Amino acid sequence: MELNKYIEHTLLKQDATKEELIKLFDEARKYKFLGVCVNPVNVKFAKEHLKDSDVKVVTVVGFPLGQSTTEVKVLETIDAVKNGADEIDMVINVGKLKDKEIDYIVNEIASIKGATQGRNLKVILETDLLTKEEIKLASELCVKGEADFVKTSTGFVKNGVGAKAEDVKLMYDTVHSAGLGVKASGGVRDKEAALKMIEAGAIRIGTSSGVKICE
Length: 215
Fold this sequence. Notes:
With 215 residues, the protein is an alpha/beta fold. The chain is 43% helix and 17% strand. The chain is built from 9 helices and 8 strands. The chain has helices at residues 18-31, 43-49, 70-82, 94-98, 102-115, 132-144, 165-175, 191-200, 210-214; strands at residues 7-11, 35-38, 56-61, 87-91, 120-124, 149-151, 181-185, 204-207. It has an 8-stranded parallel beta barrel, surrounded by 6 helices. Helix 3 (70-82) runs parallel beside helix 5. The longest helix has 14 residues, at 18-31. It is globular and about 45 Å long.
């Protein structure tokens, strides 16, 4: 199995330096990772650095809380696309989900998808904060909003576990027949964990431990 082709090599910490980003990009080239995932401010820099490679540049919207207005998330998406982002990972509004504001969630996903200009949209559910029923509901709403992927976590929840194989399986079972993929992200730090996620149905792995996993 070519694990490198599942990996989005990730650096989303707020104190990431230029030097650390260049290291991320160079590792992504060397190991032929599927993509890198960086904050919006670093998209243009990533695109320039990776221009002669097949490595996708992925960025995040409404990150990490998901509590911006839909309009702001859409503007972030438009800006990210303008700067060269190949894919967008948005954070769902967890409060609205818990309040069962179905139309709000679906409309937000659909609005952001429209702003991607045909690029893949992944929706981060933040599974650490959700019940199994809420994970299933959120996944169903991603189908309705015509997203391309459901994703487990931001990795920013205090004391959060991040991706769990059972949650990935639940998400896969909910969205697979509609053609959506699953991205496991948060706490995937070694090869054993990555293989568990893939076995549960993930076709993308978001991790800052890509080099360790592949070696």
